[in-house]
Design a protein that fits this description.
mainly alpha; 16 helices
């Protein structure tokens, strides 16, 4: 007796989700190129349009989490990897029927699908901000190429500002390093308020309540080659728990600036400096002066090494202790693959349109010089 044929189904075959994500990724890359060609449109449509809406929704839902979202995200990722591995083991008999070419093709398609998901979520949740208008255009300040004399003058100005900021620390033992108790009790809220005040004063939207959390165990981020990091997929900034108190305010607000839609590192340093200087707390102001001096010092070191060492040796003892504490922390957590970490991040920044790569951090010097000139302040 013949087995009756199964009736043909009129249902269309389900579309493979991997192809959907790959298609979305390709469309998103095209949109990224269109945004890159028209930063003004990006500023209006995304950075001041869609992104603030997404920022607010995220911050007033998952942003209320009492623990950093990084932890459940890592746990979820490990669970997903374990589940996929378990499922693959269960399907081993079925997969053994496939040819090597089929298995390689399937694996490659799976990899493309994962990359596509990561890319789409990155671009739409935050990444398009790399294509927004440079802040110097919105602030109407003119950036000039700094000569060696300009760098020297800025280094001397930054040194004077650092010494004055250190003197304002008051009657505490100024020969010692900054302590956590010298900073505001709720540093995250304090720095967010100051950043929002500075951004609003310069006509930038400040939707939601960006979080910046400390990551434990201490040294986690340092071992990965960073003291702070903003993760678009989580919508939060992070600083390493091992970061010395002197660098915490500046680094914290730098990561928050990323959260408010600024991609390039120099702009985030710029906002971090202004926000810290907006604070009434002298230790927070000192954190900004200290961080900025280190940025200018890196530039000046190549201009006149001898003069740089002479100036550094004449700094107050407390400043020297803070510099040593930074160096000791970096030595304590040298990173798993420091050179590889720097190279990967350099490539990442360049892929997002930041031509100078990691050197973009020092763009804060150009921005602050131009900012002070526009306000009639001498350098």
């Amino acid at each position: 007796m013949k087995t009756p044929l199964r009736p043909k189904s009129n249902k269309p075959l389900p579309l493979d989700r991997r192809f959907i994500w790959i298609g979305l990724a390709l469309v998103s890359l095209v949109i990224q190129q269109l945004f890159s060609a028209n930063p003004f449109f990006t500023e209006l449509a995304y950075s001041r349009g869609l992104f603030p809406l997404l920022r607010s929704i995220w911050d007033y839902t998952l942003g209320w989490s009492p623990i950093p979202l990084l932890y459940p995200a890592v746990f979820g990722l490990l669970f997903w990897i374990g589940f996929r591995w378990y499922k693959r083991r269960k399907d081993k008999e079925k997969s053994s029927e496939r040819t090597i070419r089929q298995r390689l093709g399937r694996g490659f398609l799976n990899l493309l699908g994962v990359i596509a998901v990561i890319l789409v979520l990155f671009l739409w949740s935050w990444g398009f901000n790399y294509q927004r208008q440079p802040i110097e255009h919105r602030l109407e300040i003119q950036l000039d190429s700094l000569t060696y004399d300009d760098v020297e003058q800025e280094f001397l100005w930054a040194t004077d500002a650092l010494i004055k900021a250190h003197a304002r620390l008051g009657d505490r033992d100024t020969t010692q390093s900054i302590l956590a108790t010298d900073l505001p009790a709720d540093l995250e809220t304090h720095m967010r308020d100051k950043l929002k005040s500075v951004l609003q004063a310069n006509d930038y939207p400040t939707p939601g309540r960006v979080r910046a959390r400390r990551v434990f165990p201490p040294g986690t981020l340092f071992q990965l080659g960073a003291s702070g990091i903003y993760l678009p997929w989580i919508g939060e900034g992070h600083i390493d728990a091992a970061l010395p108190p002197v660098s915490q305010p500046y680094t914290l607000v730098h990561e928050m600036a990323h959260g408010y839609g600024f991609g390039d590192e120099g702009s985030c340093n710029f906002w971090a400096y202004l926000a810290c200087m907006e604070s009434e707390n002298p230790s927070v102001q000192y954190s900004a002066a200290f961080a900025y001096w280190r940025e200018v010092a890196r530039e000046y070191l190549f201009v006149d090494t001898t003069q740089f060492k002479m100036v550094r040796d004449q700094l107050p003892q407390g400043v020297k202790r803070d510099l040593r504490e930074i160096r000791n922390t970096i030595k304590k957590y040298p990173g798993f693959f420091p050179q590889a970490s720097r190279s990967i991040y350099d490539i990442y920044l360049k892929s997002q349109g930041i031509r100078e790569g990691q050197a973009n951090y020092s763009r804060v010097v150009d921005l602050l010089v131009a900012w002070r000139k526009s306000r009639g302040e001498s350098g």
